[in-house]
Amino acid sequence: MTVAVKQRVKVANQKRIAEGIYSIWLLAPEIAGAAMPGQFISLYSRDGSRLLPRPISICEIDRIHGRIRLVYRVAGKGTLEFSKLKENDSLEVMGPIGNGFTLEGKKAILIGGGIGIPPMLELAKQLTIPKVMVLGYRDITFLEDEFSAFGDVFVSTEDGSRGTKGNVLDAIRENGIEADIIFACGPTPMLRGIKAYAAEKGIVAQLSLEERMACGVGACLGCVCKSKETDHHTNVKNKRVCKDGPVFYAEEVEL
Amino acid sequence: MTVAVKQRVKVANQKRIAEGIYSIWLLAPEIAGAAMPGQFISLYSRDGSRLLPRPISICEIDRIHGRIRLVYRVAGKGTLEFSKLKENDSLEVMGPIGNGFTLEGKKAILIGGGIGIPPMLELAKQLTIPKVMVLGYRDITFLEDEFSAFGDVFVSTEDGSRGTKGNVLDAIRENGIEADIIFACGPTPMLRGIKAYAAEKGIVAQLSLEERMACGVGACLGCVCKSKETDHHTNVKNKRVCKDGPVFYAEEVEL
Amino acid sequence: MNTSVVLAGITFKNPVTTASGTFGSGMEYGEYIDLSKLGAVTTKGVASIPWPGNPTPRVAETYGGMLNAIGLQNPGMEVFIQRDIPFLRKYDTKIIVNVVGKTTEDYCDVVERLSDQDVDMLEINISCPNVKEGGIAFGQDAKNVETITKELKKRAKQPIIMKLSPNVTDITEMARAAEAGGADALSLINTLTGMKIDIHKRAFLLANKTGGLSGPAIRPVAVRMVYQVANAVKLPIIGMGGIMNAEDALEFIMAGASMVAVGTANFINPKAALNVVEGINDYMNQYGIKDIHDLIGCVK
Amino acid sequence: MNTSVVLAGITFKNPVTTASGTFGSGMEYGEYIDLSKLGAVTTKGVASIPWPGNPTPRVAETYGGMLNAIGLQNPGMEVFIQRDIPFLRKYDTKIIVNVVGKTTEDYCDVVERLSDQDVDMLEINISCPNVKEGGIAFGQDAKNVETITKELKKRAKQPIIMKLSPNVTDITEMARAAEAGGADALSLINTLTGMKIDIHKRAFLLANKTGGLSGPAIRPVAVRMVYQVANAVKLPIIGMGGIMNAEDALEFIMAGASMVAVGTANFINPKAALNVVEGINDYMNQYGIKDIHDLIGCVK
Ligand SMILES: Cc1cc2nc3c(=O)[nH]c(=O)nc-3n(C[C@H](O)[C@H](O)[C@H](O)COP(=O)(O)OP(=O)(O)OC[C@H]3O[C@@H](n4cnc5c(N)ncnc54)[C@H](O)[C@@H]3O)c2cc1C
Ligand SMILES: Cc1cc2nc3c(=O)[nH]c(=O)nc-3n(C[C@H](O)[C@H](O)[C@H](O)COP(=O)(O)OP(=O)(O)OC[C@H]3O[C@@H](n4cnc5c(N)ncnc54)[C@H](O)[C@@H]3O)c2cc1C
Ligand SMILES: Cc1cc2nc3c(=O)[nH]c(=O)nc-3n(C[C@H](O)[C@H](O)[C@H](O)COP(=O)(O)O)c2cc1C
Ligand SMILES: Cc1cc2nc3c(=O)[nH]c(=O)nc-3n(C[C@H](O)[C@H](O)[C@H](O)COP(=O)(O)O)c2cc1C
Ligand code: FES
Ligand code: FES
Q1: D216 close to B (CB below 8 A)
Q2: For ligand 1, what atom is nearest to the CA of residue A242?
Q3: Residue D295's pLDDT band (boundaries 50, 70, 90)?
């Protein structure tokens, strides 16, 4: 794996794709060259009062033009700042970070929940086996169309305004979707449900976790998740989401 | 006096006029409308790690176009940030602040030392009595030409590279300059010398002082100077540079 | 929607006041905001006689904060009583007078003199890090805290707020001592002692060498101390330390403060205290909270 | 130009190390910078047995700083000795091992085990605010500081650095106690205890409720404490707390620190420690300073 240097990169373009959701393309040839689906980058604020990096998953990789795409929700002051960036503005980033998805299996379900949906897009592009996508939203949908190029897309919304009313597992059950592997990213309760579901069905699941980070490189032990076995590096039942993840096999971790 | 509201203003233009010295015009009709020579404005950094205002004197007032000019030296991170502002960029300012120069006397010497020179320019414009300007620099000169429209200009430099070698008082003595009033802004040692000189000559001197500030509005008592008499507001021998100054009569203050 | 709070029998229309020393007696900022919109104005520390304070520079910017070593410059209680109290009384707001001294007698003199005055509460500053003789020395020793509180309670007609220093190993010990001494309320935190060096001049930035650190940099320490004290004593708390906006203020309230004080933020935005008042209302509206008391100490 | 310093007989090529817990054992940041360019690497606190640390969230951003409540997760001394010491020994840098424990016996066990190991100094963390049983409890009581220092000195073959907590009324008292106990050097400061509340979730941001505040926000407090301690004891000091760049580091050195440690800054810039080394050189060149000792404690 190449080392993720901290660098200043330029914004190729940015647009709002839904209420509070932004899509930004960054000119970052080194990152684009090295990145794998499921990896993320750390974004740094320009304002010195906000020191820590903001981890954002890579949504698309365009090796030809040396660009990467991020899709993110404005959640606080850091992402608010990023949302104001325009073409040719620059920002500091570090990446690609972490271990992405392992491309494997015969028939896959790609599951994204809320702001966990973006990283599934590059995975959908790179994963060549038959697959369906299940996308869970609270209410407003985004990126849905872009997935349809890669297979059938099923949607769930909490309020039932589109697709299945309920969560992604409701959508899977309602549509009788079957597979031998699940790739998923989303809120912890969703991942917990998927882990149980995969165990029940006896299929493999790769889950992308989220945790508060400080260093983003594996040094501070801020971002650990509980692992089933004693971890090689930490020598306790903790794995680092930033370095050892963010993608883990469901059986590896306790949620 | 009108109240100095905190407001966001636009940059009309900015240019570097000497090594590390910048001249910026701000579109600030309210400030331009109210400002007097010798007053200053507080500039705020965009970076939240730098909280306190940077006081900068008003160098020129353009009531017609609703603009004010500042000339400043890059002294640290705040002024460095300001030096990067371009046309149409905006920044937060508060002003005009303080009491400026009282326009009086029959024959004046306007003395500016280093970065104390800029406020003398608007004074030179507004002061209609006969006057000469004495400008003291370390080495590189700036604004010198702009003063010549308003009277004779004498220069001193510490290294003797231009004008009198030495300080502004050396230039005054060398050129036998006489007057019944002095207006001065510059470093404290210079002002101390001028105070002594004015006392010796028995003439009036108005001095613009500099002090570290926090509130800039007279509330925190951060920026006091020693006054000869017990001050009306503070009830001790302290006056507030931001509110009661920055311009004081030489006899009012201890330097 | 109710935002009024009662501390020691005094009703404040909203839980927002100004932090002592950052707002003078309200005259300067009164030009920017309507003082009647604040729950209270807390004035700059006043002593029995005028104090000239420390030499300059008295203030220095630090990362996300500032240092001050004003040294409690004040015009003395007589001028304060003649000029500042009548000025503030014109507004529909409560008056909290911050009291300083170098000796116990000093504090007693001021409190005695103020006890007949038309002010609502007295806040006793036993925590100023910038004067050698008094202030903080009282606030760093539990026995001293208790003793001075008792002495002042004997003399004051108004309820007494003891203002605690964060420069201690265990703030709850000081809070308990103040409670034992009969305090009616507590204010915290005062500033953390800090220092800044100008590496180019190779000299201290402040003439006083050390100063008090305030501003958002210290907020996590202040919130922690408010939480600890709220869970250690029964007294109502005025929380402060780096409150820049309503969100920050709500952290203190949820940690257990019944009121909050806006300090350094005034210097950055003269409307800061007013914005806090309005922002708390907005938050309560947004979440349908009917009474501010539902938020006070709600995080356990 | 000499930038090397000698602490307790150990020579460091330059006065820059890493702050314990912010740099692991150097493996991760070793991919970004050449560890041989640092005066020393100070490793994450190690205990006699593996510690799992606290539940997450363990970190939270604050204004100009951050809170952490890692809870001293560590792989235990055996894995550390087998894996981390040999890794670091490949570099031309000194190794300072940070030691933690819950009881005096714990500390003694680790120090005894490390005493035969090829490491240069031991830094005793008696100041971690994030574990209930140990850490800070030792560091907030002068008697405890002296006793534990004595116990460890009996066992250690390497010089011992006591790492002090800033969460005390008088840091010089703790420094004097460490000196009386026979410490060879002091490290300060560890983190200030802080708290952050998520006002929308109405919950603590950290699972542990409180955490240690680090980063530039706390620098003025750290510089003040280094200055106070440098003027109170004869021991050499490793100064830390919010050092982001060489200018910040020089503040500590001028206040009296013989060495400095770069902590939170690593998270913001993996090259931070290296930049500090280079920036100190630049400063010395700019002002024609031949020996770093001319700067140590030069501001009085
Ligand atoms: C591996 C990973 C990948 C992610 N990918 C995406 C993505 O593709 N799109 C997207 O919209 N969001 C993503 N997130 C969440 C995103 O990191 C947060 O929404 C963002 O950091 C919020 O920053 P802020 O300054 O706007 O919010 P603030 O609340 O102001 O941030 C304060 C601090 O908390 C941290 N923080 C806040 N929320 C989160 C969170 N949910 N997870 C981790 N740290 C948080 C911030 O990084 C910052 O340090 C991802 C998180 C992780 C861990
Ligand atoms: C009334 C008044 C008028 C001034 N007018 C001018 C002017 O017209 N042109 C000009 O170039 N400079 C002027 N100055 C000085 C100017 O305020 C400082 O150079 C500037 O604040 C430096 O900010 P910085 O962030 O670049 O430096 P930093 O050193 O990073 O600033 C750190 C802090 O110290 C304060 N500070 C630093 N130097 C000074 C100083 N000399 N005086 C007051 N505060 C200081 C800053 O405001 C800030 O709060 C004036 C100062 C005063 C008090
Ligand atoms: C310039 C200045 C002057 C202060 N003067 C006093 C004072 O006179 N009495 C007092 O009790 N506290 C004084 N304080 C402390 C504040 O009231 C408050 O406790 C502290 O600044 C923390 O709040 P903040 O971070 O919001 O400013 C002063 C603070 C500052 C910044
Ligand atoms: C994530 C993190 C983990 C830390 N772990 C330790 C530790 O294991 N042992 C220790 O003595 N100090 C530990 N510290 C404290 C630092 O070594 C340092 O004293 C403190 O962070 C102040 O320096 P800074 O502001 O430069 O980070 C830790 C700090 C952080 C931020
Ligand atoms: S964020 Fe530091 S180890 Fe993951
Ligand atoms: S800066 Fe506050 S009184 Fe002048």
Answers
A1: yes
A2: 1
A3: very high
Q: What is the ipTM of this complex?
A: 0.96
Residue-level pLDDT at A2 = 52
The percent of residues in chain A predicted with pLDDT above 90, rounded, is 97
Q: Nearest CA to A72 among A108, A29, A26, A129? A: A26
Give the SS3 label for residue D68.
Answer: strand
Is the minimum distance from the CB of C165 to ligand 3 under 6 angstroms? Answer: no
- Hey, of C18, C27, C28, C213, which one would you mutate to test binding to chain B, going by the most B CBs within 10 A of its CB? C28
What distance in angstroms lies between residue C62's CA and the mean position of ligand 2's atoms?
A: 14
CA–CA separation, D108 and C31 (whole Å): 64
- Residue C85 included in any domain: yes
Q: What CATH number does domain A5-97 carry, 3.90.380.10, 2.40.30.10, 1.25.40.20, 3.40.50.1820?
A: 2.40.30.10
pTM of the model: 0.97
Ligand nearest, relative to CA of residue C162: 3
Active site residues of D: 128
Confidence (pLDDT) at D134: 55
CB C296 within 8 A of CB C59: no
Q: Is the CB of C43 under 6 A from ligand 3?
A: no
> Is the CB of residue B112 less than 8 Å from the CB of residue B172?
no
Residue B119 alpha carbon to ligand 2 centre in Å: 14
Per the rule left: phi > 0, alpha: psi between -120 and 50, beta: everything else, B143 is: left
**Reported confidence tier of residue D133, pLDDT bands at 50, 70, 90:** low
Q: In A84-160, where does DSSP find H-type helix?
A: 118-126, 144-147
C298 is catalytic: no
CB contact under 8 A, C53 and B211: no
Structure confidence at residue C129 (pLDDT): 66
User: Per-residue pLDDT averaged across B55-67, rounded?
Assistant: 97
Q: Which residue of A has its CA nearest to C215?
A: A49
Q: pLDDT tens digit string along A35-75?
A: 999 999 999 999 999 999 999 999 999 999 999 999 999 99
- Fill in the DSSP letter of residue B133: E
Say yes or no: CB of residue B213 within 6 Å of ligand 6.
Answer: yes
* Amino acid identity, position D284: M
Find out whether A37 and A110 touch, Cβ atoms under 8 Å.
Answer: no
CA distance A61 to chain D (A): 24
Band of residue A212 on the pLDDT scale cut at 50, 70, 90:
very high
Exposed e or buried b per residue across D65-101, where buried means at least 16 C-beta atoms within 10 angstroms of its C-beta: bbbbbbbbbbbbbebbbebbbebbeebebbbbbbbbb
Q: Among all residues of chain A, which has the CA nearest to that of C216? A: A49
CATH no. for residue C273? Answer: 3.20.20.70
Task: Please give the pLDDT value at position C138.
Answer: 78
**C33 lies in some domain:** yes
CB atoms within 10 A of CB B111: 33
Ligand nearest to the CA of A188: 1
Position D129 confidence tier, pLDDT thresholds 50, 70, 90? low
Q: Would you list the domain boundaries of chain B?
A: 5-97, 108-210, 211-244
Instruction: Please report the DSSP string for C79-104 in residue order.
Output: HIIIIIHHHHHTSSSEEEEEE--SSH
Residues sharing a CB contact under 8 Å with residue B200, sequence separation 6 or more, in sequence order: none
Ligand 2 close to Cβ of residue B72 (< 6 A): yes
Number of domains in chain C: 1
C22 C-alpha to center of ligand 6: Å? Answer: 10
- Express as a percent the part of chain C with pLDDT over 70: 97
CATH number of B108-210: 3.40.50.80
Please compute the mean of the pLDDT values over residues C169-181 and round it to a whole number. Answer: 96
Tell me, yes or no, if D181 comes closer than 8 A to chain C by beta carbon: no
| pLDDT over threshold 50, residue A1 | no
pLDDT for B1 beyond 50: no
Q: Which domain holds residue D129?
A: 5-51+73-193+214-294
Instruction: Determine the residue among B45, B47, B49 to mutate to test chain D binding: the one whose Cβ has the most chain D Cβ atoms within 10 Å.
Output: B49
Please report which confidence band the pLDDT of residue A187 belongs to, taking 50, 70 and 90 as the band edges. Answer: very high
